[in-house]
Write a structure and sequence with these properties.
- The protein is an alpha+beta fold and 199 residues long.
- The protein folds into two domains: 152 residues, Gcn5-related N-acetyltransferase (GNAT) (Aminopeptidase, 3-Layer(aba) Sandwich); 38 residues.
- It has five helices and eight strands.
- Strands 1, 2, 3, 4, 5, 6, 7 and 8 form an eight-stranded mixed sheet that branches.
- It is elongated and about 95 Å long.
């Protein structure tokens, strides 16, 4: 699905923007999930609001919380958080949630530098967030009656990133050394066999 993405501070949102954001959040997190809780909170004032539009209609959303405003139970380091991730039901199954998260992650990296990124994920979405590189950082816990888990997207070190680009893994260094050692042994055995045959 092709969408347009916008990121605005709370003060940059128009009243129409805010209406559609709060309507979508209420539709997904309160009505659809049958969870009576106070969605609107003071955090919204300090967030960046990422909206996915299709033909000018809101189809998906998330908010980005700055590291200074964010605390994580899993880590005491200040890190940005992504929250309230949603895709309206009509637009699900087309990869839009992945696009939203990818945009949010890129924006966090650009705005806040190389810091881990935290989320509080509903546990039924654990595999989705793991596919984006997030790792579990807590035990499961209940928030407003729904099971959640803290997750963190760590920073990949350059050496690991090089291995990943080359199709290797952390164990590939060991495998290379083992193969080199075996080739050396075979070469020595071959030379020893030649010497034996010549004498």
């Amino acid at each position: 699905m092709t969408c347009q993405f916008s990121i605005k501070t709370f003060d940059e949102l128009t009243s129409v923007d805010l209406y559609h954001i709060l309507k979508a959040r209420s539709q997904v997190f309160v009505v659809e999930q049958n969870c009576a809780y106070q969605d609107m909170d003071e955090v919204d004032f300090d967030c960046l609001h990422l909206v996915a539009h299709k033909d000018e209609a809101l189809v998906g959303y998330c908010r980005i919380i700055a590291p200074e405003s964010s605390t994580s139970a899993a880590n005491t380091l200040p890190m940005p958080r992504i929250g309230r991730v949603l895709v309206l039901p009509k637009y699900r199954g087309e990869g839009l949630a992945r696009q939203i998260m990818t945009h949010a992650i890129k924006h966090c990296r650009k705005k806040y530098g190389k810091k881990p990124i935290a989320i509080s994920a509903q546990t039924y979405l654990l595999n989705f967030y793991e596919s984006l590189g997030f790792v579990r950082a807590s035990e499961f816990y209940l928030t407003d009656g729904l099971e959640h888990v803290d997750m963190v997207l760590p920073i990949i070190k350059k050496s690991k990133a090089k291995n990943l680009k080359l199709g290797g893994s952390e164990g590939s260094g060991f495998a290379t050394k083992l193969l080199s050692f075996l080739l050396l042994i075979l070469s020595l055995m071959f030379i020893a066999g030649l010497i034996y045959l010549m004498t």
